[in-house]
Structure formats: structure tokens, C-alpha cells
Amino acid sequence: MVVLKNTSNNNNNNNNNNNNNNNNYNNSNNKKQFYKRPDKKNKKQEVINSKGVKVIIGETDLRTKSLGTLSVLEDQILLNVIFNEFTCSELLKYQCVSPAFYILLGDDRLWKDAFFREIKGRKELVKYLENWKVTALSYLYPNSSNQFKKPYIPLHFPDFYSHEIYTRWLRRHMKVKDYGIDFGHVKHIEAEELTVEEFQRDYEIPSIPVIFKNAQKGTSMMEKNEWSEERLIERCGDVVFKISHQGNKRIPMTFKDYCDYMKNQTDEEPLYVFDQAFGEKVPSLLEDYNVPKFFPEDLFKYNGEQRPHFRWIVIGPERSGASWHIDPAGTSAWNSLITGRKRWLMYPPNFTPYTVESDDVVDKIYGSPPSLLWLLEVYPYIPPDYRPIECIQEPGETIFVPGGWWHMVLNMEQSIAVTQNFCNSQNFDEVCTDLANDEKKDYDDFKKHLLTSRPDFQDRFNQFEFKNDQFNHSFDDTDYWDTIIKSILNNSNLKYNEKEIIINNNNNNNNNNNNNNNNNNNNNNNNNNNNNNNNNNNNNNNNNNNNNNNIEPINTTNNEEANKELTKEENRKKYDEDEESDLKPKSNKIKLPPKESTLYLDMPSSGQSPVFIVDEKYVIKLYCSELGGEKSWSTELFLYSKIKENSELNSTFPKLLAYGNIKDLLGDKLQCEWKWPYIVTEYLKDTFNLQDVQPVPDSLPYPYPPPPEEDEEEEEEEEEEEEEEDIKVLDNKLVDFLVEKVSLIHSIEINSIEKKEEDQQLLVVDDNIKSLLNQYKQDKWLPWKTQLSSLDSKYISNHWNWNGLPAHLRSQLSSYLPTDKTELIDYSMDPCFIHADLTDENVLGIESTSEIIILEKIKKLKKSSKSAKKGIKPNSLSTRLKQLKQKVNGKNNKEDENEVDDEVVERKKTIKIWDPKYLIDWGDSKIGDRWYELISLYISVFALDKLRLKSFLSKYILPNNNNNNNNNNNNNNNNNNNNNNNNNNNNNNNNNDNNNNNNNNNNNNNNNNNNSKKSWLDYYNENPQAFIKRAMQYTLIHHCDAFTTAARHNPLLRNSQTIDELANSIWNLDI
Question: Please, are residues 392 and 602 in contact by the beta-carbon 8 Å criterion?
């Protein structure tokens, strides 16, 4: 049995009650009073509880007897849900109830939380004494403080065991000095060896964390120990710094008393000094450190007195720290550590840590557990591909945290640090986005003050507003988007259906009920500030909705009434800016719920290239200014017009029905400068993409514990359902389809402008396409070289933000890839149009059936057997009864076994299959190297299946290019058919009959090149290592996160120690 020593003082029970309690320590006689043990003759039963702990159930179960009906609840629920609501006086009073109450309500964390809830807003200074129970009682009952001091003897109950109390005690006393390893995820660089330009190029612009050594070298806080604990006590021992604990941001405690607390505390989540006004309280502290040379620009300084909080002194004991959060206003930060060690955990912006809810992210109230608890209870169960980026910060080091990055900190030792947040030219857009999306006034103030002193930022503001205004309206704003979609369809003469919308909620009156119930109308009108005209006109309901494109939130004219309607959770989120300096105050406006669209409309899930599906007839795709924008739209239109020349390829893609830009349709009603190009294509009914039948795991499996086993019966039912619904992907069908279509795409003729001057009516050629074709005319590889340059500038940042490629492999990228990325180009083949985004989402198919042949074993009687002579079948009832009787009697008739032969027979079976029919999305298409096409094709569509890839490579025939013409312009290669024939004939020593037949060029080429046709697999076999190297290099710089998808299909790829080993695992077809 575990004996729990409870250090809480129970003497107050004797002071408040005249009756002596046998369960409490009595000061008058200085004797221990123990709980009377039950009679040992009572029945006992040992069981294993949910925590795997052996407990005794029965009349002698101390927990059951002393908790009563509450014993059905686990201790964790009792402590966190019920007892956590008690006040200090209630905790003290209810400890007298029973042994279980005495132990559970003596938990130090309960007393700490209750104490700080009670003293919130009080000015009396707090002084920590021994534990939080003694501290609370001494503070709340100062006249009786001597009664709560030692000596006192806590009560002991050996028969009581609480796993929750025990684990809390372990965490409170845990030493974390060595709890963490620096895996080398983040580089530690000498500050003197790195220039500002190198830092901006290699770390700040690509948004990569880094640690500088000796960035504060020569400052007073480092060289003269001006920020040691002893010196700080001398300089500011009586200063009340901002000390935080959960919701209480202003715990009144002098710095000297706080240092005493740090030495004596045993808190699981210790108090933390995090003061943004330390420079105003002790101005001399600002002279002791410098802003590192890497951060010379601070654009918020132009806000003057209105600038947001930006610098903090950070002090805390071991186990203290910060839970998951993002720094305010999109700012980046640097943190210089003077003493102690910190363990940092980070995620890039596109990740959300486990335990952080999406609603919390929007509200900027992050409900993540304390850092130590998260590391103990959550971290071990995270899949390997979702692990955070980690590092250890040593004394004298300064860490750079890019804006938008999630981070958590655990102080491994008592630590003192200073940190500052900043906005500069590099994170300007992120800061503006955060300010504009949070409180428009903050953005306007920032812009006003900055332009007053720095008018050179006017262009940056214009660019930001041009981009940001595109998404002023969320996809919940159906009035706005309905108007746009209807304008597009009407302009294109495309018919669509509309539905009647009945609005029935607390904020909008139901117009259809206006004539039925006047009382309801009056009540609704009183509760909501709706326009009376809308309530009186049923026939014009839709028109009114359409005219009101922008729904203004209802301003609450009576704050008291509005506050009554707010929930407790909303009231909790209304906080004072002084207490929550890093968060914005909540608006007290009540927003109307979104209206339902009048169209049969599927809204987009994202806004980068939003896609609307209307009536299951039309697909409307819009193009924002990012991710290619108008260039992507131009390329898609051009290729749609090009494939009309090829009926097979044209039928593979949905029909293009219309195109244009919304700005021309709506003008100023669009409310943004971007003209929003769009295309309208047909909706392919009864199709579904490959991902639906060949799903990619969402994440790697958890290392432990294993998932709970489901009930066998339920499992069997699910298996039967899966068998019924299972749709097969036939490898041959998929490969043959893609070989044909990809070959056709790669054979699209790249025309110069002059060549197709007479066909301009048939082609959609705008300035973007003209520029692309002019580049091709100058150098046929120039368009792809430009694309490689763009990929080169982004791939390192992409890998950090994707966080898929393990850190030890990320560090090898620069050495594995050539400095000049144009070395990746395979000049043995001419450039061609490539789809560049052949993923499982962009390959569509239909459900059909197919007959397959399966092999089955059946039992067949030998002709010479007795049963055969008697005409008895091997599976007949008499045979089965005979076999059953022999089995029951334990007999085995060898003669019967010799009578039957196993025969393998073929049987036809009809199965459901996914039949590939279509490709979609030309938006990422390029003139480039066909090697780039292989990456998404193999990793996404083929799901890293080497047999599929090998089959594809064997059937894909490479173009037959003359080596002498490798670097010539493509147009010159097509000038004269006779010259081509002559060249082919000379190279292959064919007879003169073929030279004289100019009318059969295709036949001649086929006959002449029979010996020179080469598949991509032949290319591989000639030099496997060269193939593997080029394919892997393109994989690493690909614009999509290829490695993460590959690792989902084959988790063992993460075990590769070098990129060469990884390349062989992925691309070596002989393994």
C-alpha cells in the first residue's frame, strides 16, 4: 500500500469547530488519531481498476466507504470537475468529512487554483509559505496565521490509494534538468559568423527558426552579471512584476518574495514572471542588453505611445514555461537567455498542435495543457510525422521564432530571459494580415503612423490591400457569392435552378409566417432590428436578400440586455486589455447567422482557387492573385483550346463552357481591385476521384498504445459491409489509361505565335501566353529554367513548413541538390507541356464491373474410390454426416482421405471496379521537363507502387530526338518533312523505297525507327543510379509535399539515414 504524506495543515478544523473530531490532529493532547480500520473478517475482493492498479472492493474498501455515492467517479473527474469549483473555506470544511475527502481535498493544486480565484483583484501582497494551503489560510485569515504553521502532523491512511493524486505528486516533484535532447532540428550559429543579409536570406525570409550564440556578447547582463538573481534582487527586490497563473495575470508579489517562492515551490505549473512593463518599472534594465544586429528594423516604433506591447522580462523556476501559443499580431520574436536552459517545441503555421482546438485558434485563447503535462501525457502518443521541431536553448543564446509559428517552452532550470516581438519589412504582410483580420482599427492606426514617418511603405500597403481585399467575404456570405455566381451564369447564358429559402431563426423573421401569426411577428420585430419592409412583403423576399449584399452586424444599443444573452463562455472571453496584453478585446457585436444560398450550390472549402459546383451541372473555378493567378488562368484556357485539336485528349477533360473575369461583370460591386478570372466547365456526373477508392492515411500510426480492439461481431459486420462496397482499382487499366493520356499531353505541339497566326480565332492567346511562347522561341528550355528558379527559392522553406521530411534529412538537402538547379534538366529530350499536378484528386473515374478469373480448390472423388462407384458425392449430406461421426469418435479414416483429390479450377467472378475516364485541372501546367511529371504520378496516383511505375515506364515511349539537334529551336526541327525522312533514313540505313514515299511520313517514321524506339524503362536500365538521382532531386524540389505522402504509404522511409538511402528506397525499381 502507498502511504501518502499530506503536508496540509488540518488544525483549522479544530479552530472552527468546538467538537473534537477523531479524524483530525488534536493540539491539546498532541496525539495521533487514526481512522479505525474495519474488521478484518469482512469480505474482500481484489480487482484491477482502469489504471491497472490492484484495489480492494467490498465492505473494507476505504475509498468506497468514505466517498459514498461519489465513489463511482474517478479521482480525475472528482478533482478537475467537482472539487475544483470549491472555495478555500469549502476545501477546509469538507476535508473533515472522511479520509477520502481529507486526502483528495488536500491536493496542493486545488488549493492554489482556489486561492488565486479568490484573491483576483486584491492588492495585498502574497508571500509563499511552505505550500498553497498554508499560504492561502495565512493570507485569508491573517489573525490566525500562527495556527497554520509547523509543527503539525498530517493524517495517514495506508489503505487509501489514488493514482491521480500520486501522478500529480510525481509531476510536482519531477526534475526536468535533463528532460529533453537537442536533435539538431534548429541550427546553433555563432552570431559573429553570420551577416544580416545571410540571416535574412537563409532564415528570416524562408521563415526558419535559428539560434545565435553570443548575440548578447559584451552587454552588462552577460559580462557583468547584472541580470543574475542576486543582482536583480538588489536592484528591484521590492518591485511588483507581473506574475501570472492561468487566468490571473496580476498576482501581487514582490520580486524578492517571488525568488523565495522559486526556491521552495513544488508546483506542477509554477508561477511565471512575464512583465511587458519592466522597462518602465526599472528603466536601468533596458541599458543592460542590446537588440541583436539581425533585427535592426522595428516598424511598430512609429506608433509611439499607441504601439502594442513588444518586450518582456521572463523569469521562472524549473517546470515553468509557456503552453502552445502564437505570438500576437503576426510578429516575429527573439529571445535571449541569460541563465538556465529552455526546451523549445515548435510547429510551422500550417500545423495545429494536438490539444489546441480550431475555435481557440480563431479566438486566440489557446486551451492547451501546461507544457510539462503536454510533454508527459500527449507527446509520447504523437505520430512520428506530427512531432514538433525541437531544440535546447543554452545560457547566452538567442533564438529567433518566425511570425505565425506555434511554440511551447519548458524551463529545464531556473531561467532568466528577455524577449522582444517586432515587425519589419520581411514579416510586414503577416502583421498586416493579422491586424486587418482581427480589428480593422488596429490596421488603420498602424498604417497611419507608419506612412507618416515612412511614406516608402505606401506601395507595400497597396499590394497587401490588393491581395487581402480578395477575401473580405467569407464563403458563408451567400448573398455576396450568389450574386457573383448568378452573374457568371447569366452572362454565359447557362441555365440554372433556384430554390425557395425559408429563414427561421432568432435573428431573422420568417416572411412566410407574417400573415399567419401577428403576435409572432411582433415578438420577432421586438427582438431583432430587422427592416419592417422585409416583414411585410413576401413576394419580394428574394429581391430584398439579393440587394443587401453586405449584412451589417446588429449593434447592441442596450449593453445590459446584450450581456444577458451572452453565455458564460463568451463573458469569460471578454477580458481587459491590460490583463491580456497579447490578445485583442472581443467585440460586443452580435453577428447574424449565415443565410442559405438560393442556388443549389456546393461552396468551396478554401480560398486559394475557390471552386463552386452549381446544380451538379457546372463547375466554376476562380483564380486569386496568388499561386499563379492570371498566368494559371491563361495557361488553362490556352490548353483547353489546344486540346480541341485532339479528340481523344479533348474527351478526357471536362468541356470548357465559358470564361472571363468578374470585374468586367460587376465593376465596383466586386469591392476589390483584383478582377477575379474564372472558367466554367461541365460537371462530370457519377464520377469520383482515385483518392476515394485509394485513400491515403491521414497520418502515420501511433507508436503506442495500440487502438482498442472492437467487438468481434461488430468487426465482422463492418468487414461484410466493406466487402460489399469495396471497389477495386485494376492496375492494368490505371496504367494503360495514364500511359495513353500522359503521352498525348506530352505530345501537344508547342507553337510559336507566328506559326498559328491564322488560327488565332481557335486559340485563347493572351499576353501571358505570348510571353511564354516568346521565351520558348528564345530558348526552348527558358520557361522551365524560370520555373526551376522559382522552385529553388521555395523548396527549403516548403520542407520546414511541411515538416514532413525528418530534420536529419533536411540538413542534407543543400549537399544532395546541385547549386544550379538547371543541372536537373534532361537535355536528351525536348521540353513539352506537362500537367505538373497529376495527383489522385485529379484523376476521375466511374464505377463499372469486370469479370476476373479466380482459382479455387475443390474436392473430387477418384474414379477408383468406393464412393465414386456407389455414386456418392464428396460434399453430399451422407458424406458430411460420416465425417462428423468420425470426428466425434476421434477416428480418422485414411481410406476416405485417399478417395478424394484436390483439384484447382478456374471460376469467373464479377467485381466492382473503378474505371479511369477523365483528368481535370490544367492550372499548374507548364512547358518543362517530363521528369517532373513522374513525381506526383508515382507517389500520389500509383501510391508508391513500384510494379505500377515499372509497367508505366515500360509502356511510355520516349521521343526519338536527334542528338545533333538537342539544343536547337524546336521550330527548326519541324520545318521540313523531307529533311526529317532523309535524316531518319540515313541514320537507320533503310532502303531507298522509303525515301521516295513522302505521302506516308508516319508509316516511314514508324518503320524506320523500330530499332530506335526506347521506353522509359529502357532508359532506367541503361543507368539506374542516374535515373534514381534525377528522380529524387525532382522529388525534393517538387511544389507538393511528396515525401509526406510517400511516408504515409511506407512509414519505414522515415528511418532512412541519408537522402541516398531514401532515394534508393523510393526510386530503385530493383529493390
Answer: no
* CA neighbor of 807 nearest in space, from 351, 183, 206, 182: 183
The strand pair at 618-622 and 311-316 is best described as: unpaired
- Dihedral pair phi/psi, residue 417, rounded to 5°: -150, 165
Helix (H, G, I), strand (E, B) or coil at 852: strand
Element holding 892 (H helix, E strand): none
> What is residue 202's DSSP assignment?
I
Residues 6+ apart with CB under 8 A from 605: none
Q: Can you tell me whether residue 461 is helix, strand or coil? A: helix
H-run or E-run covering 932: helix 931-936
Q: C-alpha grid cell for residue 226?
A: 547584472
- What does the alpha-carbon distance between residue 775 and residue 792 come to, in Å, rounded to a whole number? 20
Q: Which residues of 160-194 are buried (b: 16+ CB within 10 A; e: fewer)?
A: bbbbbbebbbebbeeebeeebeeeebbebbebeeb
Longest dimension (CA), the chain: 127
Residue 909's beta-bridge partner residues? 852
Q: Are 347 and 602 in contact (CB under 8 A)?
A: no
Name residues whose C-beta falls within 8 Å of residue 847's C-beta, 6 or more positions apart in sequence. 686, 688, 727, 912, 913, 914, 915
What is the grid cell recorded at 278? 519592466
Cβ count near 285 (within 10 Å): 21
pTM of this structure: 0.76
Calpha distance 168→269 (Å, rounded): 11
CA distance 433 to 667: 25
Using alpha carbons, select from 677, 679, 680 the residue that is nearest to residue 629.
Answer: 677
* Weakly modelled stretches of the chain, pLDDT under 70: 1-60, 145-152, 247, 358-367, 500-597, 605-608, 627, 699-725, 752-762, 858-902, 961-1012
Query: What are the strands, taking DSSP E only, across 255-308?
Result: 272-275
Nearest to 320 by CA among 416, 386, 255: 416
Give the integer Cα–Cα distance in Å for 444 and 207: 26
776 half-sphere exposure, CB direction, 13 A CA radius: 22
Give the bridge partners for 906, in sequence order.
Answer: 855
CA 674 to chain centre: 29
pLDDT for the residue 246: 73
Q: How far apart are CA 1035 and CA 221, in angstroms?
A: 48
- The total number of residues shown for the chain amounts to 1071
Pinpoint the alpha helices (H) of 538-697: 541-547, 559-565, 568-573, 629-642, 647-650, 662-666, 690-693
- What does the DSSP 8-state code read for residue 442? H
Q: Where are the beta strands (DSSP E) in 993-1064?
A: none
Task: Say if residue 428 is exposed, middle or buried (CB neighbours under 10 Å; 0-12, 13-18, 19+).
Answer: buried
Placement of cell 536500365 in the chain: 1021
Find, among 437, 545, 536, 460, the residue nearest to 499 by Cα.
545
**Half-sphere exposure at residue 387, Cβ-oriented, CA atoms within 13 angstroms:** 18
CB atoms under 10 Å from CB of 78, counted, come to 20
Ramachandran area for residue 628 (φ above 0: left; ψ -120 to 50: alpha; else beta): left
In whole angstroms, give the CA distance from residue 451 to residue 457. 6
Helix (H, G, I), strand (E, B) or coil at 772: helix
φ, ψ for residue 178 (rounded to 5)? -115, 20
Give the span between the Cα atoms of 327 and 407, in whole angstroms: 9
Q: How does DSSP classify residue 580?
A: S
Give the three cell numbers for residue 788: 526551376
CA-closest candidate to residue 956, choices 1049, 822, 787, 829: 829
H helices of 412-470, in order, are 428-438, 440-453, 458-468
Q: CA-CA distance, 734 to 729, in Å (whole number)?
A: 7
Q: By the 8 A CB rule, do 206 and 404 touch?
A: no
Alpha-carbon Rg for the chain in angstroms: 37
What integer pLDDT is reported at residue 476 of this predicted model? Answer: 76
